[in-house]
Amino acid sequence: MFSKKTAVILALFFFLAANIFLLIFAGRSRTSSSFLPYRVALSIVAPFQEVATRWIRFNRDIWHHYFYLVSATEENNQLKKKIAENEAKLNKFEELTLANERLRRLLDFKHALTRPIVAAEVIGKDPSRWFKTVVIDKGEADGIKKGYPVVIPQGIAGQIIEVSKRHAKVLLLVDRNSAVDALVQRSRARGIIKGGGGEYCTLDYLLRKRDVKVDDIIVSSGLDGVYPKGLSIGRVTHVNRPPAGVFQHVTVSPFVDFEKLEEVVVILPSVRLGAGMQR
After folding, report:
1. What is the CA 155 to chain-centroid distance, rounded?
2. pLDDT (tens digit, 9 = 90+) per residue, 95-108?
3. Is the dihedral of CA 206, 212, 214, 219 positive or negative?
4. Residues 252, 237: contact at Cβ < 8 Å?
């Protein structure tokens, strides 16, 4: 019995010999197709030739598709990489656009103020549930001191409570320890804005007889010596005037969205030019 390897070699030898036989007799006679040995050899060899041809084509197609898929995969990876790079550039451009809009509003707001200011960026937030504070990237080196008001174009953000050389901590308006002397813009009724510890404030110590309604605008009175007069604080969302007692219970929704606070303005004291003169 022949081994498989020997059988394959013999088959290949027979296949080559038969092809050589056909070529010799086909070359000697123009009517080789009618020559009996040629016809017999052709009928024997042809199936092997067909199998060999199909096998060669099959393997060629496999390699062709394999290289095509490898090329397509590489091209796909390159396209994904370019898409990711373009998305990153687009996101960066969008962030720059939004930052530019915020800075433009701050610049316009600066022109509306009569006191010098320092623009700062929020770089940290107190994770505690009990305190509502943020950290900004400006400090004593920039002229900032404890007690200075912090605002944005939409309204009051808070007050400086701690200062280092390059940083400062801001107590936000909604903190329970925050207080702003305020007015109802429409009726000029006066009260104290206190932080509610969440997303709202209350207008405390507003006498029952004072006129206040839902949707009234609350502004700073300027009487607390911290915030300039007329800065926006928020809008009245609820009024409860009890039948007895001295004060009303008023809830105020701040204009500032403290969850989206990114850039702020610290208002500095007026610069004295001389006796009795300020800039």
Report:
1. 25
2. 666 666 666 666 66
3. negative
4. yes
Domains in the chain: boundaries: 1-112, 117-270
Is residue 170 within 8 A of residue 134, CB to CB? The reply is yes
> Which residues lie across from 118 on neighbouring strands?
266
98: three-class secondary structure by DSSP: helix
The residues, any chain, with a CB within 8 Å of residue 72's CB and separated by 6 or more, are none
68-97 pLDDT, tens per residue?
777 777 777 777 777 777 776 666 666 666
Q: Is 268 helix (H, G, I), strand (E, B) or coil?
A: coil
Quick one: pLDDT at residue 32? 47
- Token code pair at residue 81: 């990489």
Helix axes 36-112 and 4-28, enclosed angle (nearest 10): 110
CATH number of this structure's domain 117-270: 2.40.10.340
Q: Which residues of the chain have a pLDDT value below 70?
A: 1-53, 55-56, 58-61, 63-64, 66-67, 88-113, 271-279
Distance CA 205, CA 249 (A): 8
Compute the CA torsion angle 115, 118, 121, 124 (nearest 10 deg). -90
Residue pointed to by tokens 């390059």:
166
What is the model's pTM?
0.62
Burial of 201 (C-beta count, 10 Å sphere; 0-12/13-18/19+): buried
Which DSSP string do the residues of 182-222 spell out, in sequence order? EEETTT--EEEEEE-SSS-EEEES-BTTS---TT-EEEE-S
Length in residues, the chain: 279
- How is residue 101 written in tokens? 């809009």
Q: Give the residue ranges of DSSP H helices in the chain.
A: 4-28, 36-112
b (16+ CB within 10 A) / e for 138-174: bbeebebeeebbbbbbebbbbbbbebeeebbbbbbbb
